Amino acid sequence: MSDITQILLIIGLPFIAFLLLGIFGNSSTLLKNSAGIIGTSLMAISCFFAIQIASGYFLSPSHASGEAFSPSIVFKYVWLNFGSGKSIDIGAFVDPISAMMLVVVTFISLMVHIFSLGYMKGEERFATYYAFLGLFTFSMLGLVISANIFQIYIFWELVGVSSFLLIGYYFQKPSAVAASKKAFIVTRFADLGFLIGILTLGFYSETFDFQELIARLSNHQTPQFLAIASASFLGLSALTWGLVLVFIGGAGKSAMFPLHIWLPDAMEGPTPVSALIHAATMVVAGVFLVARLFPIFALSDQAALNIVAYIGIISALFAAIIACTQTDIKRVLAFSTMSQIGYMMFALGVSGYGGEEGAGFSASMFHLFTHAFFKSLLFLGAGSIIHMVHSNEMGDMGGLRKYMPITHIAFLIACLAISGIPPFAGFFSKEAILHAAHQSHPGIYYLGLFTSMLTAFYMFRLYFSIFWSKESKDHSHHSEGTWSMKIPLIILSIASILVGFVPFSSYVSSDGLGLESHLDWMFSIAPVSLAFLGIGFAAYLYLKENDKPESIANSLGSIFTWVKHKFYIDELYLFITKKVIFNLFGKPAAWIDKNIIDGFYALSADITTAVSFSIRGIQSGKVQGYALYFFGGILGLAILFIYIMN
Amino acid sequence: MITMMMLTDILLALKHELIISLIIFLLLFWKIRFDNAHSEILMGLVNALLLVAVLFVWFEPIETLLFNQMFGSNALTQFQKSILSLAMLLISGLSYHWLKNNANRIEFYLLLLSSLLGMFFMISSANLLMFYLGLELSTIPLAAAANFDLEKRKSSEAAMKLILSSSFSSALLLLGVSFLYGCSGTLQFSEMSYALVVSPLSQFGFILLFAGFAFKISAVPFHLWTADVYEGSPVPVTAFLSFASKAAVMFVFVSVLNQVFQSMVQTWFLAISILVFLSIGIGNLFALRQENLKRFLAFSSISQIGYILIGILGDGSQAAASIYYFLFIYLFSNLAAFGVIGIVSEQTGKESISDFKGFYQNNKFLSWVLAIALFSLAGVPPTAGFFGKFFLLIAGGANAYLGLMIFAALNLVVSFYYYLRVVKAIFMDANESPLPKIEFDFTPKIALYFCLAAILLLGFYGPIYEHIVHISKAYSF
User: Fold this and answer.
1) Residues 563-622, chain A, touching B (beta carbon < 8 A)
2) Where are the domains of chain B?
């Protein structure tokens, strides 16, 4: 089968699932009952082809002979032709990162599809749920293979829309509706930055195509580069503006500080959805985007890349601190996602281009890859726990290890992986990131090291509170969930152990040439022992139920409250939108409308009714007011042009 | 000497006008002969003839100037007239049920078609006098049509407001025309563009004319009639007002500004920028707090006009093309939204946003159509509305002030918020007693499906934009 057919099948099958289940799912009972099976089997085929494409690409004979991985355009269709060689195309192209993302997205999506068979069983809008999953997967895959910035923007928005639908799936719950709206509006603002950014880059580089764009803007001799670097606005070059705006778009989707406020609330969606969207796929879109444009960042604009690095490390640390205080298990996971994405971002930020310099790039992509497995495992594990306990609060759990042995083991593996304990997957990727940061940005390295200790602490706080701590209530009448829920947990657990051994950097690197992956055991001593320290501390506090955590919280006093309320960032935004914007703009506008405009009408009506008795019957005489405005407009323009402008 | 060949050419150049006149005569005879009998056959016939008018777009265009160079015809005018015919056809289809139960349906068609005929003459005008005649012919019947809900006070109020304020604007426009004639000594567009020099008198004349245009497209501060008239008129008339009459004036506005007033480009560039700023800002602020759906759409259409005007700020034919393309897409999004509201309002009398709470529970199809139309109006990809706005901003971005562009871009997000508010009411808000299931005929259903398909697919079909660019390059200026 040719590459085109395979790619079309990979992205087309989820879309077919969406159309089929979305349109007919609720009208035909046959489809409604088998919606899960249909969606899952289509997804399985899609996943199969994705793996085939990726393995075909990575294991190609030309690479074995030492050639660099080069992007291959699978197909290209001219959508709008502007003449003189400029056009907007729709196409697909495969390069190391998109091949990797194809596998990650389809595989995690498949796991979520399978898990949902049991988890969502009995939901009234079961078919709709699978339809939305299909739409989401389709959009995400489309985003990954986009060959030009215009196309990526469309899929970028589609991803936003479909995640809006999935977060708001329980639309009877007001909190779910509010959350989906918040996610949508916050990311809209970021997307606006993205749109302006890509338009700036596209305008100066005179192309929308990624390959050409990168080629023109990363080479400092091209006329396009000279134009964009010399144009300046508010003291920064157009290139910096373009890249920073694109990064803002990415930061919105990836929940980077300070655009992260939607992510914790988005946990209102069904838990498998969180595993798909908020762990493995959509939230890493921002990282993917920066990686996609990485040569421009690295070769042309160190300032923009530094912003990426610092925002990344701030988010990583900030989210880790908050995660230590949350009690809703999904919120802990949400903040830990934000923190891990912060790692990926700063890894890109500290990276250079080509050879050993580019180690950060490979490390970032590696972490994206491993994180997808263990974080979706954590979310799915949380899903089966919530399924059993019917609560998200840690306080309602404890001692669950007896009742859910498989979930227990899976969760433990995932916690070890995310904490960076060898030989689990997270260890390798986190080592690579810290190693990359160590060489160029020691400040970031030490903060990253500290964050990794915090990570181990809050993950094991979660683990001990759920599975150990106090004796549990009697859950023996509940079962651990169906096999369709257990199988994905088992598969993902195995993956979380094994994927770390993939020689990742030899496949995915900034210049496509591949790097020798090496592990410096001496270097690993510090992070691993810090991680054990974090785990030990968590065990000391949470292994048995006691009042130590509370007394620590009390002694920290207001600091603890600050952190627990997520540093009041949400409140700050609320204050700005509700109080400042509403009062400063909305209220005066309403006031002007009510008092001045209406009053003005009333006044003009009073004057004119005396004159115009004949048309008094129509209404209060507002039309005269209209005429007055009309005339005022003319007068204003006339005065402006004839007296002021001349 | 008029040969046979020339006569056919003249007839072909006038084909849109002729077919609309034909329908008008047909309606008059029908009224006299059958009165209200056989109305379904008549409506079918009218729709079929309108469809023919739409399909004229595929005819080989005749490029000519007729009647002492008063009337011009080319591929561009042909395309524009077909768009307007399509709007008329869709409105006729969407309001099928309302018309069937209305005793005065023949008069309804007579009024709207006369107005349409006026628009055709306006679009083809090559002379200010012809333009004025067309403008009046397109406005006066609309005022009568706004009064169509005879038993409703609000409807008569709307009619009075429309006729009073538009006569006011026409009077000032006419004053402007005479000033311009005084300055240039001609009414012919092609001659005027050379004869005009910038002087206070010509500028004042221009501003009066400009205000007349701005009134028709309801740009702030000439917009005050809009909300009241939209609210009071029956929904099909509102739909016609909100699309056809604005689009027709916009078509002429673009070419007049670029063709006739090229020498005053600095004046109108700034004037338009001011209108853009005011229209987007005020339209959005007021749309935020409207309860009635028709008033809501009135204010949101004011802000849409602001975005269309951004397109004018661009360069020549690219600007024109982006506006034509946007209007073409706006046709479907706007009429789909009004279509659903019309169907609901006709059967239940409900028009406010709170009445639409939980609308999805009983009316799945209508809810989706309305939601997708609103998404397209808001410019969310991948609906066609996104592509429309995209090209407008690209065209305008070439010249417009940076601050204005940033303002417009930020306001896109604001507009997003209020469109989403309606979508939220439809899908997510709880309601103990939502609107009941609404049945509607086959004809409106087809029209809605057509709009829906257009909204979802048009953006991805590149050749349409290319065609529009091609004809606007060839014929604009």
Assistant:
1) 585-586, 589-590, 593, 615, 618-619, 622
2) 4-475
